[in-house]
Amino acid sequence: MTTWNLTGTNTHLLICNGSSCMKKGGEEVTQAIRDEIASKGLDLKIHTTRTRCNGRCKDACVVIAYPQGNWYRVETPDFGRQIVSNIDDGEFVPQMIYQYNDGEMTPNPEFPAHTGISKNKALKEMS
After folding, report:
1. Burial (Cβ within 10 Å: 0-12, 13-18, ≥19) of residue 64
2. What is the full DSSP assignment across 83-122?
3. pTM as predicted
4. Which pLDDT tens digit goes with each residue over 21-69?
5. Which of 6, 9, 18, 114 is the Cys-Cys partner for 53 at CB 3.0 to 4.6 Å?
6. The dihedral sign for the CA sequence 17, 54, 10, 69
């Protein structure tokens, strides 16, 4: 297994490759993002990781940009490429479903995510 030297990396894209995302084009999104990174010569600036499940299956395919904390519903490979292009330009695509603001994750009302299950309620039911 390779251990990458991430010096100089400023964005880590976590690309969901769980079963729901894969059914909705996760492989194509993953390859489009990686191809765009390679074609723009951004391999040292943007690192990608395939994840299993990011817990937002109804928003498939989910891509998370860190350390920015932006969560995206990526429905097409072209949108994945746009995310990379915007990172290269020092911007972020505004169509995120969640963003990190003032120390917590907040939904983006302009691009609403599915409501999902409340963690508080689920944790109470488990105890």
Report:
1. buried
2. HHHHHHTT---S-EEEEEETTEEEE-TTSPPP----HHHH
3. 0.86
4. 999 999 999 999 999 999 999 999 999 999 999 999 999 999 999 998 9
5. 18
6. positive
